[in-house]
Write a structure and sequence with these properties.
mainly alpha, 2 strands
Length: about 325
């Protein structure tokens, strides 16, 4: 753990002190001129995303959901660069967690692959749409989406073991079922899913939104897998995390190919989120999740409202 932290901090210091050439070419990155030195923004990003990583773990949300509305709403960076960085922030966390979740048998490949095929294809389309639309249109749509996520977080219920009376024909044909070991009870849980066609159709919209806004799609994946399809909550969460490593990669390539990903933004953000997540995991055992959840909802409510008003030209 200590070696990981030291490595990440070293990478950040290398970026901070050995990329001065970005100082003279920073005008495309920001929407407004700034009197601060070039290295101040990466440093501020690192600090803010470090705190964001802690809050994301404690609140049970993905880093991308917090990153895009907060950085896009309160920092002078163009929204295209923020969305590109947001996808890579979500992707970094997914790549770090995915292999371990598969190894433990929590993430299920048969459940993930049909969803990933649809969501990743639609994420590419969403990224193209997002880069083609004017920034104010994206800001308005982003604000509305974030406020919608807040509503989902407030009212959505989760079920540890949803009741699935009978698997549907499509899930049976695709053999989407499984068994996983539950350490808390010491028992094996047999699970199957239903309403597969409806869920796959829903992932078309989720993929487009993930690519368009750079949020990642963990906030939407889990309710669909858990509540609509009937997969156990732990399987849904683990599979959702693994899915991000596929869907976000597809969308991120579009942003990279269009020059909307800048290392001077991405590197401090990823390092800050990862270090914050490490600290957040340690704090999680002592914190009260309910209180943190309401803090996250409050942050998203404020950031979503600002993005919406900023897109409408009311609050610039």
């Amino acid at each position: 753990m200590l070696k990981t932290i030291i490595t990440l901090i070293t990478l950040f210091l290398i970026l901070l002190f050995f990329l001065p050439t970005y100082a003279s070419d920073s005008t495309p990155v920001t929407q407004v001129s700034s009197a601060m030195p070039w290295w101040a923004w990466p440093l501020i990003l690192f600090v803010v995303t470090f705190v964001m990583g802690i809050v994301a773990v404690l609140g049970g949300v993905g880093g991308g959901v917090l990153f895009v509305p907060i950085i896009g709403g309160f920092f002078p960076f163009h929204l295209d660069f923020v969305r590109g960085a947001g996808l890579l922030v979500a992707l970094a966390g997914a790549l770090a967690a995915g292999p371990g979740l598969l190894k433990k048998g929590m993430a299920d490949l048969r459940l993930a692959l049909p969803v990933a095929l649809i969501a990743s294809t639609c994420a590419i389309i969403g990224a193209m749409i997002g880069l083609a639309l004017p920034a104010n249109v994206i800001q308005t749509a982003l604000g509305a989406t974030i406020l919608g996520i807040v509503v989902i977080m407030i009212f959505a219920k989760k079920s540890e073991y949803p009741e699935v009376p009978k698997a549907d024909a499509l899930s049976t044909a695709l053999r989407i079922n499984g068994i996983y070991y539950e350490p808390s009870t010491g028992q094996e849980v047999n699970w199957k899913v239903h309403r597969t066609p409806q869920a796959l159709a829903t992932f078309i919209l989720i993929g487009i939104m993930a690519g368009m806004f750079g949020l990642g799609a963990g906030w939407a994946n889990v309710p669909v897998l858990n509540l609509m399809m009937g997969a156990p909550l732990k399987v849904s969460v683990a599979t959702s995390k693994f899915l991000l490593s596929i869907t976000d990669t597809s969308a991120a390539w579009i942003y990279v190919n269009n020059g909307a990903v800048l290392p001077i933004m991405v590197v401090p953000s990823i390092i800050g989120i990862m270090l914050g997540s490490i600290v957040g995991v340690r704090i999680l055992a002592k914190a009260k999740p309910a209180a943190i959840r309401y803090i996250v909802i409050g942050l998203l409510l404020f950031a979503g409202a600002r993005a919406l008003l900023k897109g409408l030209g009311i609050w610039n």
